[in-house]
Structure formats: C-alpha cells, structure tokens
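[step 3/7] inverse_fold.run input=structure_tokens len=339
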C-alpha cells in the first residue's frame, strides 16, 4: 500500500511538471537575461509589446526557487494576448541568499529587476507604458514592501497569496509622489499572514483609487494557489492588466527653457554684421620690413624734392672738366669772357 501511494504521488508530480512544460511558450528562453530566469518573447514581428513580470515565492528549504511553477498560471493567458512574460530568479550572486524575494535586502533589489527589464528592452520592442508586475506569496510580499518604488516603472500590480505593509510612507517616488499604480489583491482570509495583506491593502487604498480586493473566504495559502490556477482566473487577471496602461508618467519633466540673457541675444536678434577683419599674418607685410608705405601716394614734399635733386645733378654734370680745356678750368666758365 505504501509503495502504491509513493508511486501515485510520483506520477502526480510528473503530470504536474509535464503540464507546466507543455504549457510553456515554445520560443521560451531559459537563463535569459539572467541566471535561472525565464522569458517568453512577444509574438514574432511585434514592435511594441506589453510585458508581465512574475515574481516567484520562497524557495523550498531555501534552495532553488520554483520559477517555472510559480509563473505557470500566467503563461497561457499572457501568450493569448500577445503579452511577453518575464520570470526572474531571485539572484543569489546579488545577495538573495535563500531564494526569497522578501528577505532580499542587499544592494538594490527593485533596481536589479528593472535592469533586467532594460536588458530585455534592448533586444525586444517593449511598450514601457504597458509593463505590469505580479507576485506570488513571498514575491507579493516583496512588492508590498517596495510599494513606493513601483509607480516609477509599472502600470499595475497584482498581489497573489501574500503582501506586507510597505517600508516607506510615500505612495510613489519623486517627481510624481502621487503616481501610485492600480493594484489587484487575490488573497484568502485563512492565510496565517492575512493580516499583513490587509495592512498592505489599507496603505495601497490610501494611495490609489483603482484597487481590487478579491477576497477568498475560508481559503488558506494552498487555497490561494488553487484559486490562481482555477480555469479562467489568470485570463481575468490578464484582462484586468491589459485594460490598465500606465496612466501617469513618472519620468522627469523637462523644465521650460530660461529667458534669454544678453549673452544669448545675438543668436535670436538680427544684428548688423561687423566689418570684415584682416586675417592674422604669420609673417610681417613688406611695408613693415622696409619702412615704406606700399601702395600709397607720396606726400607733396616728395614731389618738390625730386625736381630739385635732378637740377642739382644737371649742374654738376655741366661743371665736370672736359678734354677741350684739359681740366685747367674747373669753374666751368669761358676763359676768354669769364662768363
């Protein structure tokens, strides 16, 4: 009898695993863009696709998280609507020591998830206004703890089987502290930690007007998982998300340009162009070397000095001795007349 029970349990486990594998996207990328992560790409040819991020619950015994199992309820519903799906594994190398998102405190956990989304966006066309995030169990508690960070990146949030009040009192990060995303809660009132989910709901409802409280009366944690996997439930959650693109932008708003200052006036006010300037000389011009004014008309006194110099030269030539007088008469006068 005992062997039969073990065999039945083993068979059931294989069926569950096989069902999860069969429902996986045939184009799934394992270990992308991070170790242990799963990514179901958008439809081929899509240029701007929505993206759903699904965070797993705590790893059994602190070992390997059940990334594929915990994201499996959303796979078919996302694919049917052309939504890409990303299921990141809580990274041990980044400080997630026991495979638990809500216990991960080293570094910047929300920033690490955003960095993986950015890596996907560099290879695939992702619509930044239709990026949603969902968390199961400990993944939901992680999202609750970091609630004030979510409005900067995600259009809506789904909490399933978990949640805890946020550590910060803000509803959303600067510069839009009121930009809190819509939220959906799927929780059972028999969960031993249900009071934490209620505390989160109160805080979220104080920040966002779009909050759905889907209570599962009499359901414990196992009942919450079964409710998520019930026929049509994931479809209704995806329909709820698809109807909620990001309503407010959390990016920095570019300020208006400052008024023009006198230094910038020449760029906008026409002005008379300055006269052309002589390009700088690498060697001095010839006038600077010789001391003359090249290309200029001589002044008046130069025109008077030139004829005077010519007359003086002519007089000297006339007084030079000649062979006729043998050079005796040096005065240039007629020896007979004296004139």
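[step 3/7] decode complete -> sequence:
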């Amino acid at each position: 009898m005992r062997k039969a029970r073990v065999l039945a349990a083993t068979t059931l486990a294989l069926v569950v695993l096989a069902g999860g594998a069969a429902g996986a996207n045939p184009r799934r990328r394992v270990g992308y863009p991070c170790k242990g992560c799963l990514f179901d790409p958008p439809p081929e040819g899509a240029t701007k696709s929505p993206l759903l991020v699904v965070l797993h619950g705590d790893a059994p015994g602190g070992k390997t998280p059940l990334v594929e199992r915990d994201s499996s309820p959303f796979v078919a519903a996302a694919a049917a609507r052309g939504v890409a799906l990303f299921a990141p594994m809580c990274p041990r190398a980044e400080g997630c020591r026991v495979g638990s998102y809500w216990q991960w405190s080293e570094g910047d956990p929300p920033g690490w998830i955003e960095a993986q989304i950015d890596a996907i966006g560099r290879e695939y066309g992702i619509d930044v206004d239709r990026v949603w995030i969902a968390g199961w169990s400990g993944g939901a508690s992680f999202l609750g703890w970091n609630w004030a960070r979510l409005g900067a990146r995600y259009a809506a949030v789904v909490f399933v089987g978990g949640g805890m009040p946020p550590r910060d009192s803000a509803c959303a990060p600067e510069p839009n502290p009121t930009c809190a995303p819509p939220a959906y809660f799927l929780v059972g009132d028999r969960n031993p930690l249900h009071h934490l989910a209620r505390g989160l709901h109160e805080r979220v409802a104080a920040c966002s007007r779009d909050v759905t409280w889907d209570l599962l009366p009499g359901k414990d944690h196992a009942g919450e998982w079964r409710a998520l996997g019930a026929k049509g439930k994931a479809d209704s959650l995806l329909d709820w998300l698809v109807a909620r693109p990001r309503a407010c932008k959390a990016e920095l708003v570019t300020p208006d340009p400052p008024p023009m200052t006198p230094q910038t006036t020449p760029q906008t006010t026409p002005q008379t162009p300055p006269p052309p300037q002589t390009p700088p000389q690498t060697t001095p011009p010839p006038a600077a070397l010789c001391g003359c004014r090249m290309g200029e008309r001589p002044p008046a006194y130069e025109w008077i000095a030139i004829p005077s110099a010519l007359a003086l030269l002519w007089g000297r030539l006339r007084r030079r001795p000649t062979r006729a007088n043998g050079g005796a008469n040096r005065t240039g006068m007629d020896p007979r007349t004296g004139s």
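[step 4/7] annotate
The radius of gyration is 47 Å.
Residues 24-242 form a domain with the Rossmann fold fold (CATH 3.40.50.1820).
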